[in-house]
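User: Here's a chain of 208 residues. Predict its fold as tokens.
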Amino acid sequence: MIVRAVALPGTPLLVPGVAGSAVVLADTRDHVLGALRDLAAHVDRVVVVVVAARRQAGRRGALRPVLETVGVEPRWWGWVPPLGSEGLPAAGLAGSVGLLALAGAGWDGPVEVVELDPARPAREAGRLVRALVQEPGAGLVVVTSTAPDGAARAGGPAAGWHGTAREVEDEVLGALGDSFEKVVERSVGEYEHRAYEVVRFVGAPAGR
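Assistant: Prediction complete.
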């Protein structure tokens, strides 16, 4: 069995240095790096799939990670993005976490970021993912929302965004689950005291 896709939580606390000298999400980070290394061993390119904020939705291509939106400059990052990415357009926060996690796992191959629009029907996202998993040599990294579960019930525009984003994420993860077996690793964050999941979607080697 080989890893075809990985789902990981999109919290910037995964990135070493974001919490300063504090050690946070150590178990989750280990799960993420292990899963991504397994994925990298079997693919030629990686597609990072995220549900984007409205102003970024619909973008697709090579992007660079940025964490300045959460007040962390590159000099503090414990994971270093690949050389040559400096001039690329900036990814959103979730996409940036995925890109840096791949760098932390040692991946230096091609990466495409797909920023899904939460306002479009979730089934379109499912169709896109089903098409991507059919591409030879492609591996998927899905970066999921880390908003509290109550956010979608609180009312207001932010709650509406989180609700539609979760629908798109559920469709994407469901499409992967229909194609591959799920292996889930759970841990509790030391800082936020909440559960995080890292999911490996595994399938048989080609030809079986």
